[in-house]
Amino acid sequence: MADSSNLANLKLHYTILCEDVRLEINHKLSLMGLFYAIQVPQLPVTLLKLVVLNHWSGTGQYLSEVRILTPNGAQPVAVSPPSAFQVPADGYADNVTIFANISFPEQGNYLLQTLINSNVYSEQTLTVACVSQDQSVVVSETVQ
């Protein structure tokens, strides 16, 4: 099913991490609990649900996998099975991966990898930090 001849045409526009995703009646996705770091009062921590949304453009059929590796990159924390998706000509595709009951044993920069046709296509860090309520590792700007 995977078509590696079109891999040069495939483009990953963004990867979003959130707690849940829902497909609405109008075929739009509603994302709940967006985040780019995990900040908790103590470790280890287990997340009941973690959703990874990848938004693609290009043309062709592909196999996608998502995995999260420990900060040293030696062990997987979560690995998705291969999932087929198709990007129509001049179109886009959203690939949603849902992980359940993921445990993060220690703080650090975990590696979130997106694979296409069993090859690493994209990598980004997912920071897991142990913080008290009055401190924050990540600061965001206020949207007005």
Can you put this structure into words, describing what you see?
- It is a single chain.
- It is built from no helices and 9 strands.
- Strand 8 and strand 9 (119-130) form a beta hairpin.
- The chain is mainly β.
- The mean pLDDT is 90.
- Strands 1, 4, 5, 6, 7, 8 and 9 form a 7-stranded mixed sheet that branches. Strands 2-3 form a two-stranded antiparallel sheet.
- The chain has a single domain (4-130), classed as Immunoglobulin-like.
Subunit organisation of the chains:
single chain
Termini gap = 45 Å
CATH fold descriptor: Immunoglobulin-like
Order of helices and strands: EEEEEEEEE
Strand content: over 45%
Number-wise, the strands total 9
- Radius of gyration using CA atoms only: 16 Å
- Work out the count of structural domains: 1
> What's the overall average pLDDT, rounded?
90
- Could you name the CATH class? Mainly Beta
CATH architecture: Sandwich
What topology emerges from the helices and strands here?
Blueprint (H helix, E strand, L loop, with lengths): L10 E8 L1 E4 L5 E4 L4 E4 L4 E25 L6 E4 L3 E22 L3 E9 L2 E12 L14
Parallel strand pairs: 4-9
Antiparallel strand pairs: 1-5, 2-3, 5-6, 5-7, 5-8, 8-9
